[in-house]
Specification:
Helix 6 packs across helix 7. The protein has a five-stranded antiparallel beta sheet. The chain is an alpha+beta fold. The chain is built from eleven helices and eight strands. It has two domains: 113 residues, Arc Repressor Mutant, subunit A, CATH 1.10.10; 149 residues, Beta-Lactamase (2-Layer Sandwich). This is ImmA/IrrE family metallo-endopeptidase. It comes from Novosphingobium aquiterrae.
């Protein structure tokens, strides 16, 4: 199951439950599959587990030692296993994107859609400034993690932007807006964080403040065009994860060559779920 299938199934599930309020009530999602949620102390690396009871209902147990946002995501993740009919795989750490199985990643996508429903999240993205400060505010409003919020922010943005998750200094995941994909911008998974960028310095422990302009070809593969690219970063020392937001001032970026657009879609596989118009609105430069 690919990411887009998982997200569409999540939207169908939300429609069955009914339009949620903010922040969404994750126990309501659990109830819809005949589940009840308990919060107990589990192993340090254990987020949650679920089991089907003899009466056909489900018991979902989440780790009460974790933050409330992590618990909320864990409930939605366990709901995803039931709805998507994907067996749980607890052989890898939940916080590591690099070592997650495809089934676990599909459940993560489903869970993110439940926590940040498209119909509620997209209008807020459209009206928000661009930058990690705005993403952090949205994460607070939806009571979701910065990683989930940042990924969906970039995917649904009208701007030319990307959200990059790196672990141990290597790029593991990149969410791009429709307009940035159309421009042919590609951040290669497995590549090292570009040296002497804001992200690189933040990972090395330097104090970083605000955003900086960066050369586009430092981040994007085979980039041969001009444009003012801006970078904002957060480094999570506990997991050695670097969160990078990249965006162009669209007024400075010429249209993408048709050949490069085809390369970006055909050779790189699955596009991120969008529903966005193919070109951004006015620029939102954040200094």
């Amino acid at each position: 199951m690919n990411d887009q299938d998982a997200a569409m199934k999540a939207r169908k599930f939300i429609a069955e439950v009914g339009t949620p309020a903010l922040p969404v009530l994750v126990d309501t999602y659990a109830s819809h599959i005949g589940g009840s949620v308990s919060r107990e102390t589990l192993g340090e690396q254990e987020d949650a587990w679920s089991v089907r009871l003899p009466n056909g209902k489900y018991r979902i147990c989440v780790n009460c030692a974790h933050s409330s946002r992590r618990q909320r995501f864990s409930v939605c993740h366990e709901v995803a296993h039931v709805v998507l009919d994907i067996p749980a795989d607890h052989s890898t750490p939940s916080w590591s994107y690099a070592r997650r199985s495809p089934g676990e990643i599909a459940c993560d996508v489903f869970a993110a859609e439940l926590l940040l429903p498209y119909k509620l999240f997209k209008p807020r993205v459209d009206s928000a400034d661009i930058g990690l400060a705005a993403i952090s505010e949205l994460a607070d409003e939806f009571e979701a993690s910065l990683i989930s919020t940042g990924s969906r922010f970039a995917t649904f943005s009208r701007e030319l932007c990307a959200f990059v998750l790196s672990e141990e200094g290597k790029v593991r995941y990149c969410a791009r807006s429709t307009s940035l994909r159309s421009a042919g911008a590609w951040v290669k998974p497995g590549s090292l964080i570009p040296s002497d960028t804001l992200s690189d310095r933040a990972r090395r422990g330097d104090v970083t403040k605000g955003t900086e302009e960066v050369e586009p070809d430092q981040w994007f593969e085979d980039w041969e065009r001009d444009g003012s690219l801006y970078e904002d970063v957060r480094h999570l020392h506990q997991w050695d994860q670097t969160l990078t937001l990249l965006w162009f001032d669209d007024a400075d970026l010429p249209p993408a060559p048709a050949q490069r657009q085809r390369w970006g879609e055909e050779s790189q596989g699955l596009r991120e779920l969008d529903g966005i118009l193919p070109w951004p609105g006015k620029s939102k430069r954040k200094r």
